[in-house]
């Protein structure tokens, strides 16, 4: 479905264009600037909601609201934007979380012009990443998002902010090199040079080339997701970032990695995906179990939730590896669900830090009496994070488990091992979350703040948290409100990947020993040797 009005272009460029006026706005104490930034974010959010409400067809799996402009013809770069069932929910998630993060930044007094300029610029980059249909434009938007995060952590972060910001930029910048190299290789492969992602997905790549490109993109997006062992930047970044930045980091930026794995690795490189899917399943299990165990050992509140995010992103990998519609649907739902829950929990961590001036769990205690509203909101968020039935986290993780357990693409032994090990992570998750609540809110008040007036949550703080948690409960009680947005697309992608099985089964791989094809699903020599894929 094409659209004559450039909804996506306006939604992408409006925050960035509006941010350029911030340096010249008359404002002495930052009040005008924060209202200006919030107004721009609200307008953009409303525009996105209206555009999708009026122009998006849930039953159409194709790209919609398509906009293509020949931007720089000398290098073949097009300003090409569109959305489908995978990107549309993530665009809405980005708009909601970023708007609330700007509202959460109400107390920023240090360099407010620069802070809100960076927040709006990052808003544009996020929308651009999820809407870009030109792989070079995708790369530019991906890079545009990195610089604001680096500056936001390095200036408004904690005591070790420079170390955390430097580690973040090194990891993500190195990962970006893999994206650029892979993008150029795909663009120049064969006789037709193009950066259009739809055309790139139709090229007839050799299997060896496709595997190399897939591996490069997996490293790049594995940093962002993050996948073990490329995850070590995340706890440091979260531990030092301010609450609004952590909201965006956990709520939106991690989802870029999952989105890109589905959009490029799975959809554009389906033959290579058949070889790498077992590895993704193994890495997903490692993420789930490792993240949960390490989270339990953390005494820093934000680092505990950072490792929790690593654990929860493992379910996204499992869903992508499942080959099933329900598994992929669960992965998308898990991304949206975790984006809302993590943003709420990191914001509440900032609210708690403002009162107690500490993130050390062993220095907290007895906060429930002084801050009952914060306690209630923190409890709801934690229940959602541990996948309590009736919450969106439960639906997402259940979909992933069902999709993987019912997949006919793996041996029963492999599926049993994966599901059982993933269940270990599910058992540990309630333990570290409930123990976190116990250390923070139960027992006697810590001597470090005993006698001080610990204020409960203010209306603005309650409003921000409720805006994030209400969709969590709504999706948990009625998942169709979200799944109807992408069901037809996940069915199409899963079918597309499975259709590559017959092609790959008859292609020899030069670097591996070719195995005989059987009527059963046998996509790779690697899988045959591991004995995990039928």
Automatic annotation (TrEMBL):
<feature type="transmembrane region" description="Helical">
    <location>
        <begin position="168"/>
        <end position="190"/>
    </location>
</feature>
<keyword id="KW-0793">Thylakoid</keyword>
<feature type="transmembrane region" description="Helical">
    <location>
        <begin position="205"/>
        <end position="223"/>
    </location>
</feature>
<feature type="transmembrane region" description="Helical">
    <location>
        <begin position="135"/>
        <end position="156"/>
    </location>
</feature>
<feature type="transmembrane region" description="Helical">
    <location>
        <begin position="243"/>
        <end position="262"/>
    </location>
</feature>
<keyword id="KW-0812">Transmembrane</keyword>
<comment type="function">
    <text>NDH-1 shuttles electrons from NAD(P)H, via FMN and iron-sulfur (Fe-S) centers, to quinones in the respiratory chain. The immediate electron acceptor for the enzyme in this species is believed to be plastoquinone. Couples the redox reaction to proton translocation (for every two electrons transferred, four hydrogen ions are translocated across the cytoplasmic membrane), and thus conserves the redox energy in a proton gradient.</text>
</comment>
<keyword id="KW-1133">Transmembrane helix</keyword>
<keyword id="KW-1278">Translocase</keyword>
<keyword id="KW-0521">NADP</keyword>
<dbReference type="Pfam" id="PF01059">
    <property type="entry name" value="Oxidored_q5_N"/>
</dbReference>
<dbReference type="InterPro" id="IPR000260">
    <property type="entry name" value="NADH4_N"/>
</dbReference>
<feature type="transmembrane region" description="Helical">
    <location>
        <begin position="416"/>
        <end position="434"/>
    </location>
</feature>
<protein>
    <recommendedName>
        <fullName>NAD(P)H-quinone oxidoreductase chain 4</fullName>
        <ecNumber>7.1.1.-</ecNumber>
    </recommendedName>
</protein>
<feature type="transmembrane region" description="Helical">
    <location>
        <begin position="305"/>
        <end position="323"/>
    </location>
</feature>
<dbReference type="InterPro" id="IPR003918">
    <property type="entry name" value="NADH_UbQ_OxRdtase"/>
</dbReference>
<dbReference type="InterPro" id="IPR022997">
    <property type="entry name" value="NADH_Q_OxRdtase_chain4"/>
</dbReference>
<feature type="transmembrane region" description="Helical">
    <location>
        <begin position="113"/>
        <end position="129"/>
    </location>
</feature>
<feature type="transmembrane region" description="Helical">
    <location>
        <begin position="86"/>
        <end position="106"/>
    </location>
</feature>
<feature type="transmembrane region" description="Helical">
    <location>
        <begin position="374"/>
        <end position="396"/>
    </location>
</feature>
<feature type="transmembrane region" description="Helical">
    <location>
        <begin position="6"/>
        <end position="26"/>
    </location>
</feature>
<keyword id="KW-0618">Plastoquinone</keyword>
<keyword id="KW-0520">NAD</keyword>
<keyword id="KW-0472">Membrane</keyword>
<feature type="domain" description="NADH:quinone oxidoreductase/Mrp antiporter transmembrane">
    <location>
        <begin position="132"/>
        <end position="411"/>
    </location>
</feature>
<dbReference type="InterPro" id="IPR010227">
    <property type="entry name" value="NADH_Q_OxRdtase_chainM/4"/>
</dbReference>
<feature type="transmembrane region" description="Helical">
    <location>
        <begin position="33"/>
        <end position="53"/>
    </location>
</feature>
<feature type="transmembrane region" description="Helical">
    <location>
        <begin position="335"/>
        <end position="353"/>
    </location>
</feature>
<dbReference type="Pfam" id="PF00361">
    <property type="entry name" value="Proton_antipo_M"/>
</dbReference>
<dbReference type="InterPro" id="IPR001750">
    <property type="entry name" value="ND/Mrp_TM"/>
</dbReference>
<feature type="transmembrane region" description="Helical">
    <location>
        <begin position="274"/>
        <end position="293"/>
    </location>
</feature>
<keyword id="KW-0874">Quinone</keyword>
<feature type="domain" description="NADH:ubiquinone oxidoreductase chain 4 N-terminal">
    <location>
        <begin position="77"/>
        <end position="122"/>
    </location>
</feature>
<feature type="transmembrane region" description="Helical">
    <location>
        <begin position="462"/>
        <end position="479"/>
    </location>
</feature>
<comment type="similarity">
    <text>Belongs to the complex I subunit 4 family.</text>
</comment>
